[in-house]
Design brief:
CATH class of the largest domain: Alpha Beta
Number of domains: 3
Number of helices: 15
CATH superfamily of the largest domain: HUPs
Strand order of the largest sheet: 2-1-3-4-11-10-9-6-7
Radius of gyration: 26 Å
Oligomer: single chain
Bound molecules: xanthosine-5'-monophosphate
Largest sheet: 9 strands, mixed
Low-confidence stretches: 1-8, 362-375
Helix content: 25-40%
Strand content: 15-25%
Shape: globular
Length: 538
């Protein structure tokens, strides 16, 4: 449903767009990332997409790599009509083999030997437009393939080779169709971004105008057109980057017809509610309702130790409280000068969530545990309250959301904030949740994060926190809980490494927590990566 609404007027309608067709490579989304870094708007769609169903006309098409061989019985193949659209086309790895196989299946050899790792590319010049792809591209490239070309497809010439791959780069002699065997999107191909730039700008002629300052203006217009000048929009906020940026954008677009709700479940970080009130309500001028439902959450959580049950209880109670609040807000809305109906529900979906849902063969991600802070909220708002979804960040990657936040005047501290799970401290107390334990977790977390900030390490770490292990250690003199400190570095939160602190720093944190937080007698640091561990401990 949301996709239909959004597709009607998504950025691909107003920005020159490069389409990336996904054949299931773990690197596909990086092609889109690199193009965006070059200020070229790009979207990814699965290889099952037919040319006739494309929701927009791309300036160029890139066929990604993928794990299949063109000879596999169930191999995915690009829609032949994509080749007839008259737009430039670049095939990467399997994408190259798709191009060759289409012209003649004998041009591809099934890989008996995989080539994985670095290779050195030698560009071949023809003094014709085919040279444009490799302009300024030389040196190392990253290979990861089984199949490769055994012969040039008819009408093509070689534009690059490596020791193992004589047809590492090919181009059609008259049409703008190119293929490369290596991966320009990975950081191990130092000139890969230059190659993508050559393709997008020089060959496709795309305008490099994808910037967040350009996006804001267009997005505000899009939101205004969609919402109209009477309807109201409602959104849940958490104090995190995504919901704050989405809320501020709505405020810019429709002013006080946007209403934010913060449900305080009593499991937020130290002083967090007060800070959100100040930031969203006072600084950003957003109409914010804060509901203190902590007593209801704490009462219901008493005795629950299983983390999945905690998540479910918190998620469901969140929805109950939210729905009650909506009824109150609706009454207020009806009586204001701005009177109108609440028709939309704001959701801070980001592009990685979209990629995950459309990625061919599941993509790089697998759902590990029930995650969503407000699990089920959008669906219940759609079914029950008859609200339509609005997702203004749906096409953005996290770093683009951060940049958008800066452009909207949100402070650097908030923009760079580590993620915080919806169930909050509730899943950072390993065992039964009590007020005493919540207080301990909050204080320990505050000390850890403050010391990380003071040491200038905050932005080097993707996420850090303190959790409480509720089994007590020590003896009668100093019996107390164990605090587990965790800090990880990750780009996608699907895999992560523990941050390598200096031992002296960890000892100082440990001393301060044990000295200052009543009820703690020991601190440990979790050094396990994900996998096998997860970022949250449960
Ligand atoms: P894990 O623990 O799965 O965490 O490695 C990956 C990222 O997701 C966050 N996380 C959650 N976020 N509700 C949320 O909103 C949850 O129940 C939840 N569990 C984990 C975690 O903090 C990390 O950023």
């Amino acid at each position: 449903m949301s996709a239909d609404i959004e597709q009607a007027d998504a950025p691909h309608q107003t920005f020159d767009t490069l389409l990336v067709i996904d054949f299931g490579s773990q690197y596909t989304h990086l092609i889109t990332r690199r193009l965006r870094e070059l200020n070229i708007y790009s979207e990814m769609l699965p290889c099952t997409m037919k040319a006739k169903d494309l929701p927009f006309r791309p300036k160029g098409i890139i066929l990604s790599g993928g794990p299949a061989s063109v000879y596999d019985a169930d191999a995915p193949h690009a829609d032949p009509d994509l080749f007839e659209m008259g737009v430039p086309l670049l095939g990467i790895c399997l994408g190259l083999q798709q191009i060759a196989w289409r012209i003649s299946p004998d041009n591809v050899v099934s890989g008996d030997k995989r080539e994985y790792g670095k290779a050195t590319i030698i560009a071949q010049h023809h003094n014709t437009p085919v040279d444009r792809l490799f302009e300024g591209v030389e040196g190392n490239v990253w290979m990861s393939h089984g199949d490769k070309l055994s012969a040039l497809p008819a009408g093509f010439c070689t534009i690059a080779s490596t020791e193992n791959s004589p047809y590492a780069g090919i181009a059609h002699e008259s049409d703008p169709i190119f293929g490369i065997q290596f991966h320009p999107e990975v950081s191990h191909t130092p000139h890969g971004k230059r190659l993508l730039r050559n393709f997008a700008l020089d060959i496709c002629g795309a305008k490099p105008n994808w910037t967040m300052s350009e996006f804001i203006g267009r997005e505000i217009t899009r939101i205004r057109d969609l919402v109209g000048d009477k309807s109201h929009v409602l959104g849940a906020v958490s104090g995190g980057v995504d919901s704050t940026v989405a809320a501020k954008l709505m405020k810019e677009a429709i002013g006080d017809r946007f209403h934010a709700v913060l449900v305080d479940h009593g499991l937020m970080r130290l002083n967090e509610c007060a800070e959100v009130k100040k930031t969203l309500g006072e600084h950003l001028g957003i109409d914010l309702t804060v509901v203190d439902a902590s007593a209801k959450f704490m009462a219901g959580l008493s005795g629950i130790t299983d983390p999945e049950r905690k998540r479910k209880f918190i998620g469901n109670t969140f929805i109950d409280v939210f729905e009650e609040t909506v009824i109150e807000i609706e009454k207020t809305v009806e009586n204001t000068a701005n009177a109108g109906k609440i028709e939309y529900f704001l959701q801070g979906t980001l592009y990685p969530d979209v990629i995950e849902s459309i990625s061919y063969k599941g993509g790089p991600s697998v759902t590990i545990k029930t995650h969503h802070n407000v699990g089920g909220l959008p669906q219940r708002m759609i079914d029950g309250a008859g609200l339509k979804l609005i997702e203004p960040l749906r096409e953005l990657f996290k770093d683009e959301v951060r940049e958008l936040g800066r452009q909207l005047g949100i402070s650097e501290e908030l923009v760079m904030r580590h993620p915080f799970p919806g169930p909050g401290i509730g899943i950072r107390i390993l065992g039964d949740i009590t007020l005493e334990r919540v207080t301990i977790a909050r204080q320990a977390d505050h000390i850890f994060i403050s010391m990380i900030r003071e040491a200038g390490l905050y932005n080097q770490i993707s996420q850090a926190f303190a959790a409480v292990d509720t089994s007590k250690v020590g003896d009668k003199r100093v019996e107390g809980y164990i605090i587990i400190l965790r800090a990880v570095v990750t780009t996608d939160f699907m895999t992560a490494e523990a941050f390598k602190f200096d031992m002296d720093f960890l000892m100082q944190v440990s001393t301060k927590i044990c000295n200052e937080v009543n009820g703690v007698s020991c601190c440990v640091y979790s050094t396990t990566s994900k996998p096998p561990a997860t970022i949250e401990l449960q």
